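fyi for ur records
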Amino acid sequence: MDRSAGVNSTPSSSLFFRILRHTRIVLIGAGCAAMCWAANTPAQNNGPGGGSPTAITTIRTPQQARALGLDSLRRAVRNDKGVPLPRQLDEFVKNRKVAVQLGKALFWDMQLGSDGLMACASCHYHAGADVRTKNQFNPDRLTVVDDRIDDVIGYYLAPINADLNFETRQPNEKITREDFPLIKSIEQYYRAPDGRVLPGNNNSNDIISSMGTLFTFFDGVRPGSVFDAGTLLPDPTWHVGGRNVRRVEPRNAPSVINAVFNFTNFWDGRANPHFNGKSAFGAQDLRARVYVNRAGQGLVQEIVALDNASLASQAMDAPVSFVEMSYGSPAHGNARSLAEIGVKLLRRSPEGKRLVPLGLQRVHRLDSVLGPLSNVTAHGLKTSYESLIKRAFHERYWNSPDMIALPTPSVDSFTQMEANFGLFFGLAVALYESTLVSDLTPFDLWMETGLFNYGFGKQELAGLNLFVNEGKCIDCHAGPELTKASVREAQSGKGVIRAMAMGQGVALYDVGFYNIGVTPATDDLGRGGNDLNGYPLAYSRQALFERLELLPMTFPIIGNDQLLATDEDLGSDVCQDANNNGVCEPSEPILPAFQRIAVDGAFKTPGLRNVELTGPYFHNGGVATLRQVVQFYNRGGNFCRLNGRELDKSIVPLGLSAAQEQQLVAFMLSLTDARVKHRMAPFDHPELRLAEDGFDTDGRIQIEAVGAFGSWQPLQTFLDLDPNDAIFTPIGECTPAQ
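which gave:
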């Protein structure tokens, strides 16, 4: 979702006075901080939150890998008795099977888009990602002025100064192999007169992402019609020869496969683990309510908060985004709501016509979820969205006969089912996505049997040993999920706000989010960005802002009551634990050395299964092959000096040979699930049409419907590139300034 409009607005002007006071205290207390640091110096480490340098561990057996926290994902899920789902789920959902059917239909349905073409699946159709190559550039509209205040406030107040210039390719041009990597000279950026840090020496801060809608004023939904009413607006950025082309998202689309294991979702983690039924931001959205029909009370508005529901939170963004699936113009306060999408899909037209689920698409008769509902020879399903909602969800969320007044451009009042459409949409899509678990890779099979197989042999085992040792990959890609951004890690007892050794000193951070120097922090603040009301996204920044009385939070801070008083990995006290309960209570002062936040320019660590198929890589899509990924880490990143105060400590030159780089790539290739590659259940899907370029309004790319047995034709890599293709490697190593 494009967040360039108002992303850095602040919730209170009094913050400036608090910041001024805080800055003076920091300067006056610098000597004290230095003495406290000397008295509490933690042991040096090799990774985020790590302790003393890790000795080389040779892995020959799965048991040795499990000793380091790795495991077969299938085994881990079986031991956990399933994937992480909300504990309160059955209070809302009465039939999970039907809810999954509803979620799959909604996820793949092109009718959800204002233009009758854009579906959620449009950006997640290929191993959960997008590999189209034309009109896929964003010029980096999220860049901010290089105005860092201190180690706590960081870039929180830095205003957006969007870059509207394309460096690599112009709108509607095609990506080529030679465009990669986007960064061709490490550390080569310069400061512009307006305070922005901009690329130089043949570098590009463009983003390779996914195209969405044409820039169009939203005039309203039309029940029974595939197309919303809209008025085309001149697009100042995406245009060719005076004609608009489709807008492009500001970050590379991550895969939805295995996303159920993420504690938060999206690259910046804004999809909150607590689902409120209305938006992505959980309890941080104070206006979020759902309508419940209570006996003896009638319709009442209630706050809901389902835990382990980040998938539902992330589903809220794309359908209403004016870049992705909806018409809208934020500058004019013009946007489509989820309730209006409910009207589009649920209400009959004046002539009595109602949209059929997946009415523009064929559904394979052997579809693993939708097969029993398929019209087979015709398009769509033999049911309605209204019927699916009634069968999937409890009556109290949809059975009121009363209308609800919510004036919008095209609708004055809504039924309870329409008004609660966001609740149904989020939970149904989340339940469908929770079935997209890839856990039958060659690596997983080796972890279960200890036997080499077709995809995991001596070369891959050598790569695994590099992964956990010289490559330092396991520092962030840990556990059965191969990411520290997982529900498992968040619920491990160590909390989601943690202490971490930096290149110099220590800091608090959000577990699973790291600045690895892909781009300058000012290109995209990532986890350091703000929510819809201007509050920090990062729980660590929220906590320290409140504890230092910089800015009170108007909502509960996730992890603030679980910050450990003594960090065992660092061997250091984090706060003055007056009551000796092992936790930094909100009233207990954080020690000066830890009054520092490492979230600016930090992004969620993705899981690695099926990574062979999901290029280009990183949040900016800046490299095209797995070999380029490995070479990025081998040289110590792109911007270790420019990101010095924010950089993850593990980002240093690795000294790997060419043969070792290839071994690491071989290990990552062993993480491909053949079911994903051949679109076998649960990764089968309905037909889908995609825009071929920025002018295409008909969907000239056609993806055929595939049933449970999949397709003989495997999915290909991005640009059909060899994963070991190095293309071009920037010269030199990036060594952080000391």
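The radius of gyration is 25 Å. thats all i got for now
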